[in-house]
Amino acid sequence: MSKLPNVTTSIFTVMSKMAAEYNAINLSQGFPNFPVDEKLTNIVKKIATENIHQYLPMTGYPPLLDKIAALTQKSYGRKITTETEILVTAGATQGIFTAIQAMVNSNDEVIILDPSYDCYVAPVLLCNATPIRVPLNDDYTINWKSVESACSNKTKMIIVNNPHNPTGSTLHQDDFNSLVKIMDALPDMILLSDEVYEYITFEQNHLSANSQHTLVNRAIVVSSFGKSLHITGWKIGYLIAPEHLMIEIKKVHQYLVFSVNSICQVAISHYLDVVSVENIRESYQQKRDLFRSLLQSSRFELLPCQGTYFQVASYAKISDQSDVEFCKQLVIKHGVAAIPISSFYENGKDLKLVRFCFAKDDETLIAAAEKLCQV
Length: 375
Hints:
The structure is a single chain. It contains 14 helices and 13 strands. Strand 3, helix 6 and strand 4 form a beta-alpha-beta unit. The model has no long low-confidence stretch (mean pLDDT 96).
């Protein structure tokens, strides 16, 4: 009998496969198509001949841990202890899986805000726990009254994604204030804050759980070098958590992965000396603004994009089709692949919205926009 009977091929795989079959421009899956920074590839070339190809310490390459601590303090004013509060993971997804496996027990409940990325539910189910899906408002703000109503004495964790995939929305201080009130009433509740797009925000600086002094002792914060440094295939992320939570997380990590790719950790450690996270934000803001400007003459209605490298668009003025069918026809008839937002909801809620990834070179965005303006 399957432990995950309702898990099927992901919509990301389906749409990317269709894009390849029809030779369409793939704006569905969230990965950049432009070259990695030459500074980073030169670092890899230089260190490849060094003695860095064996196991590193379970928690991570010590100099990289120091760089993460320094980056966190600079970005959020949080001082963390490298030996006990940081764990390098084989991508953010592994970090999320490990944290849930370590902290959630059988018959616990975990609050997940819909629409939600697809890696949250499976590890909850594998714990024999119950995911409680709470829909966001239609403008993708959080309905904190609904969240509070969904909580109970069984609630062990709430998962928050900020900046939010797929919608590009971000949290504000009022959101954290509401979250604190709920967690104060449930002293055993833990926050899992998925912040993989933390350095890809635009008009507003990212507001991290790392900066919330009343939450940090009960929070596990997930970050991704893959997203921040445009190296998704390296699968390098990290967790920050207080020691009493990290002790339990490391117990799972040591048997799931033990230690993470050595050369990637060493290369990133060197690269953090020469890269600026401010430049990362600026480059993606240019791409967002270019893509939005190119679609101004289209029939798509663009929703606000405060962070991530995703643009959500309404096609309600174009078609009455379901968003899944619309995305399939968009590939077949117009040569552009997108992701239907209904796939991020437990109940398949269809608001006639699709998600485009703008982490592409300008030529790709221009070519895609020309096709989309003809829809």
